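Let us begin with a simple case.
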Amino acid sequence: MSIQNTDGGRVFRNPVLDALSRTHIAVPLTLFWGIGLLASWYGVAHYHLDISATFALFITGGVFFTLIEYIAHRNLYHMGVAGSPRKAKLQYLLHGFHHDHPRDKRRLALPPLVSLVLATIFMSLFCLIMGTHGLAFGGGFLSGYASYLAVHYAVHVYTPPRNFIGMLWKHHNLHHYVGDTGGFGVSSPLWDVLFGTMPVDPRKKKVVKL
């Protein structure tokens, strides 16, 4: 069931920039799942890469994305802003607006143009380091990004399911509505567990355990 969503209003005064800050979730999901799967298929079909190795690299790339997601969320989106107005403005544009308007479903993903630039940089880096095997690893990485977007969108737009997957809703909602000093993993709480940043459930007064 979908929950009530609100429009956060304008981020930029320039109407073109403001329009570019919005996107329908179907756009990045189609782009990055599509590119991720296509890159992996191309490695097998064109470069005759081993299928089992391609699958292993694809999964590894997806897991690696969850680490990058955690690092970016913790150190870039929640960077310290004391004494730096320019830094504070940057953080607000990157992520602070989302915390102020968590139900603005048109801004639950980076604009596709920005995401495509970052995807190109990462894919180029993986292929530079790993050669043609970077296609499978990068394909998994981009598919991991799309999966993260799907989870993030679902958590903010739909009511939590009554099964174990609901822990992702609880984990991210604690980050938003209790305290943003923990709970930096969205698609998975794995890195919060490993790095000791699991959020505290105020009803239990202790760290949430999986």
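The second case is a distinct protein. As before, the sequence precedes its structure tokens.
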Amino acid sequence: MTVPEPWKKEYLEEKFLKPDPWNYFSSPYEQQKYHRQIDAIVDRYPNPRKILEIGSAEGAHTMLLAKRFPNARITALEISSLAMKRAMENISAFADRIELINADLLDFESLLEDFSYDICIWSESIYYLGARLPVIGIYDLMGKIMGKLQPGGLLVMANSIELPADIPESAVTKRPIIDSYYSLFSSLATPALKSIYAEEKMGRIYEYQIWVFQR
């Protein structure tokens, strides 16, 4: 049996055979991470009208965004069809202002309107794209995503650092790799926040960083 590579769609579909495989809905660690990103938006852009979320999974963060920003329309992009199916159920109360799109960002990016969004949330999924693209490709994609924002718009990210070796994503969350992403984004937009956290989740300590860049 072939084991799916951890940055391919097949791997994510396998992960989502189990509902909420990373405990996004139930983990205080994950919920705190979401609320910190939302607080970072509120502090700098309190009333966004259009939000793009890249890698929305089953909609845990999407729902919090919809609740906190009742005037915003949200476009949520997710590669896993299983995750998207559950997200449709989870966000049903906000279906009138959340558009769910089941697609690979690499295939769909060109269909997203330029200079259109006030906020882009791109959390914990750049690892997979970074593993699929050469450096020049990931830099080009970063530039295209920044181009989806209106002038003054914000890109908000949370990224784990040095995940434990027994987690498949460990290889794509090495500190030098994540640091390079920060440097690349800093050359495309103005850094507005870089916060570092080390907190417990299910008996282990994990480090992550929250970044905000302004176009």
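Residues 28-44 form the longest helix (17 residues). Residues 29 and 56 are 17 Å apart (CA to CA).
Keep these points in mind for the review questions at the end of the chapter.
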